[in-house]
Amino acid sequence: MLFAVSMTFIDQTIVSIAAPDIVSELGLTASGMQWVVNAYLLSLAAFFALGGRLADLFGPRRVVVVGTLVFVISSVLCGCVPRGDFAQSWLIIFRATQGFGAALLFPAALAVVVAVFPVQRRGRALALFFGLSGALTAVGPLLGGWLTAWTWRSIFWVNVPVAIVALALTATARIADRRREESLDVTGAVLVAVGMGLSVLGFQQAATWGWGSAATWGCIAGGLAVLVAFWRFERDRRHPLVNLAVFRDRAFTVDALVLFFAMLAFVPVFFFASVYAQVSLSASPNQAALYLLYFFAGFAIASQWGGRILDKRGARPAMRIGTALGAVGFALWASKLTDLSMHDQWPYVALAGAGIGFLLAPASTDAVNRAIGASYGEVTGITQTVRNYAASIGLAVLGTLLTHRTTENVVSTLTSRGVPSGTAHGVAEDIAQAVTGNGDARTPTGSGTAATAARDAMSSVRMDFAEANQWVFYGMAIALGIGYFVALRHPGGKGGVAPAGHDAAGEAPAAAPPAGGGHRTSA
Question: Which backbone phi and psi does 53 adopt, to 5 degrees?
Fold first, then answer.
């Protein structure tokens, strides 16, 4: 199962490093490149609850196999994108189907892990599962930097051998499927997908349409209204897509909210930090990957401590420490961005990573352990939907902020060099779209005085972009700060209530075949 889910988490962030090469070869627009990144996350968020439900209805092994096949076929097609006018649509479509495959795969894989571990060992297994999945998210840029040196298409093709190994191991593990004879809530699945898609579309396109646009607010408000309708619809269903009763547990609600605010920073940071490194620090893709290695180092070390704290004292202390460290780390990192030096920034990059590392596995594990009256598939569907929806919103909102601040800063730089205001705005928008879409900011195109002034001012533009990124990273610090105050509301203690369909010992009822294919789960 770890082999299977490794692909899904690496692909959340691996594209961020390869994006400049993708833009250069395929001629994508800035908003198009952001959608290539966000389509995957949005599809994950929209269909995760459905994936968890399908694992319950048809058995987790079947859904793992189907999800893996959908994911790897989509990966191959992403790597085979043709050049030309259809390239952008092609890549966005198959990134979305990648996300759909991942949404099927992950909750089903987790259900398998839960089924084969006895309750006394389940906490440690889940902490490892969630901790490793977070670490794999951080590995994405590192792997992407190495693979891009060959060809950016390899970042998608690398999933093929991993998928083959995952399918082979799944077959040899002889995992038996346990199915629940219930109906599938198709209407709920459509409502949640439409609601999330519309709201993220509004946030994503705000930089293009403008915050004063009726289309921007129509999408945001319409999406949120559909999500409210989804919530009301689910309350009256006998077999809902999402069992909303789990939110009656205050600890579960706090876990979900902490994950939401943490994910506003965690996945987006890889995209924005890699763009910053390549634009403001003039780093190569490999150098940008090494820059993000500081974050991963802090994350890896702290995740071990967070797991120990979870085992001994529960999730509350780990979440408080993590959100506090993360808020301080991102704030200090933001203050150092204008130094334009990797060497001066690494302690704060590592501190920000440590904050996320402390809280990610404990919050995720505690939420699953408090799955009152719901299956593990349903609960994981909720928490992972929250995580990926937050990551999509973070990318959209912070990307819009970055574009706006970059444009303002570059306009100020150009007008100070004698470029007329109107012309400066046009050139600044071109530069902002290039750098925030991972284009090449080193050689502005155009002719005449404005283009010459822009080329001459590129060293200042790199500083302008660094200053714009400060707003983004301070925004991440604020998100973690809000998460800290939410974590204070956690009641403490350790969750240990078995989900529906399991007895107090965490095993399946006698009438249902064990999910270990006849093997003893204590082996």
Answer: -70, -40
